Every structure is written in structure tokens, then in C-alpha cells.
Amino acid sequence: MNPSRKPLIAGNWKMHRTVSESVALARAVADTSRIGPRTEVVVAPVFTALQAVAQALVGTRVTVAGQNVYFEEQGAFTGEISAPMLKDVGCAWSLVGHSERRQLFGETDASVQKKLFALRKHGLAPIACLGETLAEREGGVTYDVLRRQLDAMTASLDAQEATALLTGLVLAYEPVWAIGTGRTAKSSDAQSAHAFLRDRIRDRYGEVADTVRILYGGSVKPDNAAELLAQPDVDGVLVGGASLDAAGFARIIQAAG
Ligand code: PGA
């Protein structure tokens, strides 16, 4: 972590928990976590539980994210949810481009960019995920993939527009081979990927790079969080499985200071 950026700990609950279970988990997170004065904590429940969780967390330091969003505001888009709708139920954030969305539901670099624009337009903060698959890592193209995914977020924007989009943006580097597998990236590999992303932003757009927070995700657990968070370019973590256990998630939050 770098003291110029606030640590961010995010829990992605994926397709787990009913409404009442989600509210209970959210309350447990808010009640048991000792959240450092500068740390931000976000949880991303299933869509059906967003409103109830957001209400349960009013007055706490835990905020709420959607796990996905559609880029249109309304219309004939069966099964989709828009940014104003997320805002309406109390979300401050949304994930975009999670590898499960990219791999299982056809999310593309281009749709990720449209979703970023939609979230920003409606005052929601994106957590934009990117990362290489195992085949890409073994094929030696990790950094090509990261560059492509990152550059696509600012594709066709002029420098001023790109800088506006990147200011305060949260990225989540999630190597796909580390998600849900128990196989965490070595903290040095995470640091290298994060530094690569930040350097790429700095090379293209200058010092806005220092305002971008880059989370690491992929089998983050209470016992590996501190080492990951100790890396200078790791500004937080995006936690899947381990965020479903309030006590464990509280330990990860504490690792951020
Ligand atoms: P995991 O998931 O912590 O269960 O590996 C991380 C994620 O998909 O965001």
C-alpha cells in the first residue's frame, strides 16, 4: 500500500445467499470488523439483496456494490439492471468486467468501457476487473492481455477524457487462474502486475496514475492478505470466497490497517 491512496477492501459475494442471509452477513461484517480510519469497505451481494443490504448498512462504514451493470439506462433489455437502478437501491459502486462475466456471459473489453461510462455518468464508482487466464500466463502473454484490457477502457478517448475517467478509478487485477482455486498469485507477481498497470497509465496519461487504486483478487484469505497488502502498488483486495465468512473478512479488513 502507498499512504497516498486509501486502502479498499471489497467482498464479492457472487451468486450466494438469500436476502435474509445477505442482511445477516452484512450486519456481521459491519458489527465485527474493526475498520481502520482510512480504510474503505465494500460488499457486493446478489441483485435481489442489494436494497435490503444497503438499508441494513446505513450508518455503518460498509458500502454496497452491484456485481454487474448494463450500460443502457432503461428499455427492452430483459434481465439487465442499469446504473440508475443500482443507485436507486443504495449502491455506491459496481464491479465491471469480472472474469466470470467475461468468460461465462460474453463480457467484452468494449462493453466494459460502456459500463464504465454509464457508472460514472450516474455517480457510481466502478471497480473494473482485469486479468489473464492460465493459458495466457503460460503462453507468456500476461502483460499483453493486461495492456489490451486496460487500454480498452480509454479507447477512443482524448487525453482529457481519459484522465477524467482514470481519476480515482479502482481497478482489480484478478489472475483468472487464482480465482476460487486456492492458488494465490505470489505477492511479488501481484506487485509486478500492479506496477505494470500503473506504469502503463503513467506513460500514457501522467500522474493520474497515482490516483488509481489497484486491488488484487484471487484466493485472498485472512492469512495471505497482509503480505499482499504490503506491496507498494497493491491498494486493496477483492475477496470472493473468503468474504462469505464475516470473521475471516474482518481479519482481511484488519490487515489493511
Ligand atoms: P476468490 O474470488 O477470492 O474466491 O478467488 C475472487 C473474485 O472472483 O473476485
At the first level of CATH, what is the class?
Alpha Beta
C-alpha-based Rg, rounded: 17 Å
From the 3D coordinates, which CATH architecture would you assign?
Alpha-Beta Barrel
Low-confidence stretches: none
Bound molecules: 2-phosphoglycolic acid
Overall tally of structural domains? 1
Query: Helix proportion of residues, in percent?
Result: 40-55%
| The CATH H-level homologous superfamily | Aldolase class I
Order of helices and strands: EHEHEHEHHEHHHEHEHEH
**How would you state the average pLDDT, rounded?**
97
Tally of DSSP helical segments: 11
Q: How is the main sheet built?
A: 8 strands, parallel, barrel
Question: What's the count of strands?
Answer: 8
Enumerate the strands of the largest sheet in spatial order, edge to edge or round the barrel.
Answer: 1-2-3-4-5-6-7-8
How is the CATH topology named?
TIM Barrel
What percent strand?
5-15%
Gross morphology: globular
Distance linking N and C termini:
10 Å
Structural class per helix/strand content? alpha/beta
Sum up the structure in keywords:
single chain, 257 residues, alpha/beta, TIM Barrel, 11 helices, 8 strands, 41% helix, 15% strand, binds 2-phosphoglycolic acid
